[in-house]
Amino acid sequence: DAGVTQSPTHLIKTRGQQVTLRCSPKSGHDTVSWYQQALGQGPQFIFQYYEEEERQRGNFPDRFSGHQFPNYSSELNVNALLLGDSALYLCASSWGGGGEQFFGPGTRLTVL
Amino acid sequence: AQKITQTQPGMFVQEKEAVTLDCTYDTSDPSYGLFWYKQPSSGEMIFLIYQGSYDQQNATEGRYSLNFQKARKSANLVISASQLGDSAMYFCAMREVRGKLIFGQGTELSVKP
After folding, report:
1. CA distances, B86 to each of B42, B43, B46, B72, B78 (Å)
2. CB count, 10 Å around CB of B90?
């Protein structure tokens, strides 16, 4: 039973570029949540996708957008990258829009 | 506003001893869930234990137990018989009704041999 997977593992971008991060939920899960974790901080909620729609959103600018596909996998897109976007991006999946969230290994994004 | 507070940035414990990691929370919702996660240096969040706001008994999972004191709004994690592999960051989190997790700042636990 595959857990939550994320790709890529690491990513280096320069300011102003755009990035797409990908997440495949745990088998049987239909809800994907994205979190940003800056160095030395706890994760911060970005948004949650359920039934292919953004269900909840945290305090992040519109540069952060996402998508959920019919197979429940999800993408996180960040436009016009800033140095402050450097962080570990964690994806978590759950079932039915709530429930226990299982996390993936994360994508480490470095913006130079 | 919902908030999680972890006041211990770092903790040390001797191998085989027990340790308590503190967590207090603030919410006006009657229904919520409290979680503890372990995050090793690799970055993955590993679920440890869960306590629902209506649960009457304190949650236990192997060497982990959650000391839930609802009136005091605290949800401390107790790790018994610490092992070297327990060295990691530990995060307390609260789940809102619609599923969003709110995390504390974390506590870095170091287990000494």
Report:
1. 14, 14, 12, 27, 12
2. 24
Q: Tell me how far the alpha carbon of residue B23 is from its chain's centroid.
A: 6
Q: Are A110 and A13 in contact (CB under 8 A)?
A: yes
Tell me the pairing of strands B107-112 and B10-14. Answer: parallel
d(CA A66, CA A53): 9
- A31 interaction partners in chain B (CB closer than 8 Å): 99
Peptide bond into A8 cis (omega under 30): yes
Residues of chain B contacting residue A94, judged by C-beta atoms under 8 Å apart: 99
Q: Which B positions 23-62 lie with beta carbon below 8 A of chain A? A: 35, 37, 42-47, 50
Yes or no, beta carbons of A56 and B98 under 8 Å apart? yes
Tokens in use for A63? 């540069």
pLDDT digit string (tens) for A62-74? Answer: 999 999 999 999 9
Residue in chain A lying closest to B10 (CA): A40
pLDDT per position as a tens digit, B29-41: 898 999 999 999 9
Q: Do B23 and B77 meet the contact criterion of CB atoms below 8 Å apart? A: yes
Which token pair is A97?
């829009």
